[in-house]
Write a structure and sequence with these properties.
Strand order of the largest sheet: 1-3-2
Order of helices and strands: EHEE
Radius of gyration: 18 Å
Structural class: alpha+beta
Largest sheet: 3 strands, antiparallel
Length: 75
């Protein structure tokens, strides 16, 4: 049986939404094992002086939860 968990992360890029997504997944992968998918829940831009300054994404990342190792029972 496989059990998965979903966690929400946010990521920011000065280049594009695509770069924010890639950087967010890359960073999440450094600390979360078993990522299987991500859903971009929200996109937003920060504007400074009338121009887009940053691209922000909020993602829901799905990863498989590893089974715990059970201790051998004493006889």
């Amino acid at each position: 049986m496989t059990v998965a968990r979903v966690t929400e992360i946010t990521a920011t890029s000065r280049k594009s939404f695509d770069d924010a997504i890639k950087q967010g997944i890359k960073r999440a992968n450094d600390t979360i094992d078993g990522i299987t998918s991500a859903w971009v829940a929200d996109q937003q831009v920060s504007v400074k002086n009338g121009a887009v300054a940053e691209y922000n994404v909020r993602m829901k990342v799905t990863f498989v939860i590893k089974a715990r190792r059970t201790k051998a029972r004493k006889k």
